[in-house]
Amino acid sequence: MEQNKEEQMDWKSLEPTHGVKVFLTVLYCLILSLGIVGNSVTIHVAQVLQRNGYLQKNVTDHMVSLACSDLLVLLIGMPVELYSAIWFPFSSSSDAACRIYNFLFEACSYATILNVATLSFERYMAICHPFRYKALGGSRTTKLLLLAWLCSALVALPLLIVTGTEGHIPKERQTPVQNLTFCTNLSQHWVMYRTSIFTAFVLYLLVLVGVALMCRAMIVVLRAPMGPNESGTDGAGRDVPKHESARLKASRKQSILFLVLIVCALFVCWMPNQIRRLMTAALPKSSWTASYLRNYVKLHLVADSFFYLSSVLNPLLYNLSSRQFRSAFCQTLLCRLSLEHVNRRTLGSSQASKSSSNTVRPLLRRSLNRIRTVTGGRSTPPSSEERQSAPNPTDRQPATSEPHEEIKQASTLPNTN
C-alpha cells in the first residue's frame, strides 16, 4: 500500500501546476478561436473569389480542403487535449473513444500535410510542365484531393488497432498501477505501433523534401529570362501575350512564396510533435526511466501547442501572399463584403476608356472641319451652282481662234505693189 501511494504521488507530481494549466487553457482557447474564425472565413472568401472570377476552381478546392483539415484538427484535438492532457492527464477513458480519437486526429493531421503536397504538385506541373498538366484532364484536382484524404486515412488506420486504454505496468510488476489507466499505445501491439509511427515520420519528411524540391524547380523556371518576342503559357497550356505572361509569372511567384512559407511553418510547428511521437516509439513504456518520462511530459505540452498553432497560420499566410484575398478577408470580418465580378470590372474600365475617347472625338471633328474650310477652295470640288455660273471653256474657244485665222489670212495675201 505504501509503495502504491508513493507511485501515485510520483505520477501526480508529473502533472502541470495550476498556473501552467490556466495559461495553457487561455492559450488553447485563443488558438481554437482564431483557428475556427480564420479557417471558416478562408473557406467563405475562397468560394466568393472563385465565383467572381478571381480564383481558379482548382486553387479554391485546395484552399477549402486544407482549411477543412485544419478545422477538424482543432475541433477534434483541442477539447480532448485540454481535458485529458492538461487538466486530468491520468483519468480513465473509453477504449472505443480512445481508438476513434487517435484515428480521426491522425487522419486529419496528415490530410493537412498531404493537401500541401498535392497543391505543390499541381503548381509544379502547371509551371514546369504545362502541356502535361493540360493532358491530365479537368478532374485532376478532385482526384488529387481524394488521393490525399485516402492516404491520410491509410496512415492512421493502424491506430485503430494499436491504441486503447491501458494501465501503467512497471517492469517489476505484473499488474497495472491502480488509477493510472490512460489512452496510449497497447503493449501487445508494440511492433505494429512502432512501425506505423516511423512510417508516418518518413512520409512527413518525404513531403517536406518533395515540396522543397518542387519549389526550387519552379523558382528556376520563373527566373528564366524572357526574350523580346517571347510569350508564356498559362496553366492550361495556352499561349498568352508577353504582358499577360509577366502578370501570370508574378501570380505564380506569389504561389511559390506561399508554399515556401507553409513548408517552413510545417517544419517548425510539426517537428516537436514528431520528436514526441518518436520518443513513444523508441522505447516501450515499461522501459521508460523517470527522467525520460519527465522530459516527455514537458515536451508534450510544448509540442502540442506548436502543432495546433500550425492550423492557425494558413489564413495568415494567405493574407500575406495575396492583396485581393486580404481585402476580401478584412471585408468579411467587418460584415461588409462587396466584391465586383472581374468581368464587370473589366467592362467598366473599357466603358470608361470609350467615354473618354468619345469626349475627344468632337474636338477632332472641329479641327478637321476647320482644316476643310481653309483648304476647301483647293482640295474640294465646286458645287453644282458654281459649275452653272462659271463660263464654259468650249464657248470661248471660237472667239480666241478668230484672230489667229485673220493673221494667217493676212500673211498669205499677195503683194499688189
From TrEMBL:
One of its GO terms (molecular function) is G protein-coupled receptor activity. Residues 370-400 have a biased composition (Polar residues). PROSITE patterns: G_PROTEIN_RECEP_F1_1 (PS00237), G_PROTEIN_RECEP_F1_2 (PS50262). One of its GO terms (cellular component) is membrane. InterPro entries: GPCR_Rhodpsn, GPCR_Rhodpsn_7TM, Zinc-sensing_GPCR. It is found in: Membrane. Its main location: membrane. Keywords: G-protein coupled receptor, Membrane, Receptor, Transducer, Transmembrane, Transmembrane helix. Residues 38-318 form the G-protein coupled receptors family 1 profile domain. It holds the Pfam family 7tm_1. Residues 370-417 are annotated as: Disordered. The chain crosses the membrane at residues 20-43, 64-88, 100-121, 142-161, 197-222, 256-275. Belongs to the G-protein coupled receptor 1 family. This is G-protein coupled receptors family 1 profile domain-containing protein. It comes from Phoxinus phoxinus.
